[in-house]
Design goal:
Layout: E1 2-8, H1 30-43, E2 52-60, H2 68-81, E3 83-94, H3 101-110, E4 114-120, H4 124-130, H5 136-148, E5 154-160, H6 167-179, E6 184-189, H7 197-203, H8 212-228, E7 232-235, E8 238-240, H9 247-253, E9 258-261, E10 266-268, E11 272-276, H10 280-288, E12 294-298, H11 301-314, E13 319-320, H12 321-327, H13 332-344, E14 347-350, E15 353-356, H14 364-371
Parallel strand pairs: 1-2, 1-9, 2-3, 3-4, 4-5, 5-6
Antiparallel strand pairs: 6-8, 7-8, 10-11, 11-12, 13-15, 14-15
Helix pairs in contact: 1-2, 1-10, 2-3, 6-8, 11-14
Length: about 375
């Protein structure tokens, strides 16, 4: 089984914290971009030749800015070039201000059966400094609209660790999300990425990031509230009701192969990782000339070991010591470090599978780094 990721680099506005590849001035070449994406799907189909496509994910950027015709043309190309599973999961990332009855019905008619909505916050002040295009009212209204259109697999994004956000405010954010009846919540700690407006504000001391202690408190609150509500914490940043785990994102954490198309999109086949150029005009021109611009790397044994370790530990499935040992022998230093982490109560080892404990999930990146070769 394989997944296909399509990067749509269109956005209405630039969010203060975002370092993803996008453009806010795309109208003059949007038709050429969609055509290039369709062409790339055709010319790169051999990357996952012989695999059945189990998931299709439209990310970005803002895929909800696509017209029905643009969305349908991309999906038609995928169905033409690949064998697609009959119960394929098709996810579309959407912003609340793009969701209305007509659009939601169009998405369903095209085959979309899962929405990932970028709410980020239910507080007007937070949305304003994030430079989001939507309002709190639109955040609340968009979910029943999608449900009425027939989409019953809805994920929302929330951001915690915001400046001046106390635990009481964060609990209200979570409770509001639960009251809306969503099946999946992705919650991310605010990160100050280089070359963003947020980074500039921090450097100029216009904004003071939340402390690590407060961010950890928010994470603990998040786990408690969602586990109590019946959600499963199946990956560090992801929670789902039973049977609503994201199939597409889970394939990343399980090390499955996937094809990424569109500018800046990444692909992985188990041995090689490649990534398209993050420049819209050069991407379009390269595809038009049948010479796609991309870089790639052959993963060394050390790379493969560390990636399996990092992704495996983040998810509920854990990481297999047998699989790790098949890549590189588990030396004394690794086993000693693993023993130390078990004594701290951060990991447990059961039937040769290493899992993070609930406490360990707060230190996932550090734990992986301690075990890296």
């Amino acid at each position: 089984m394989a997944g296909i990721y399509i990067h749509i680099p269109f956005c209405k506005k630039a969010c203060t914290y975002c370092d993803f590849h996008f453009s806010t001035t795309f109208e003059k070449y949007r038709e050429a971009m969609v055509r290039a994406i369709c062409t790339e799907i055709s010319i790169r189909k051999n990357r996952i030749d012989g695999e059945v496509v189990e998931t299709i994910y439209f990310g970005g950027g803002t895929p909800s800015l696509l017209t029905l015709e643009e969305l349908q043309s991309i999906l038609d190309t995928i169905h033409t070039e690949f064998e697609v599973q009959s119960e394929v999961e098709i996810t579309l990332e959407a912003n609340p201000d793009d969701i209305d009855v007509s659009k939601a019905q169009e998405w369903v008619s095209a085959g979309v059966n899962r929405l990932s909505i970028g709410l980020q916050s239910f507080h007007a002040e937070s949305l304003e400094w994030m430079n989001r295009a939507h309002t709190v009212a639109q955040s609340i209204a968009c979910i029943p609209i999608a449900q009425q259109a027939g989409i019953h697999n809805i994920s929302i994004d929330l951001i915690y660790g915001l400046p001046n956000m106390d635990n009481e405010v964060w609990v209200k954010e979570i409770q509001t999300a639960l009251q809306l009846g969503v099946q999946h919540i992705s919650a991310y700690c605010l990160t100050v990425e280089p070359n963003t407006v947020l980074s500039s504000w921090v450097k100029k001391e216009k904004l003071q990031p939340a402390s690590n202690e407060l961010q950890n408190e928010h994470f603990t609150v998040l786990q408690k509230e969602l586990l109590t509500a019946g959600f499963e914490h199946y990956e560090i940043s992801n929670f789902a009701l039973p049977n609503f785990i994201s199939k597409h994102n889970s394939s990343y954490w399980k090390g499955a192969i996937y094809l990424g198309v569109g500018p800046s999109a990444h692909s992985y086949d188990g041995k090689y990782r490649s990534w398209n150029i993050a420049n819209n005009q050069r991407y379009i021109q390269g595809i038009a000339n049948n010479q796609p611009e991309f870089d790639f790397e052959l993963l060394t044994k050390e790379n493969q070991f560390n990636e399996l370790l990092l992704t495996g530990l983040r998810a509920k499935w854990g990481v297999s010591l047998t699989q790790l040992g098949a890549i590189l022998p588990l030396n004394k230093s690794f086993l000693k470090q693993l023993e130390n982490l078990e004594k701290k109560g951060w990991v447990v080892c059961n039937e040769n599978i290493v899992y993070l404990t609930q406490e360990g999930k707060s230190w996932a990146d550090k734990i992986a780094q301690d075990l890296f070769v």
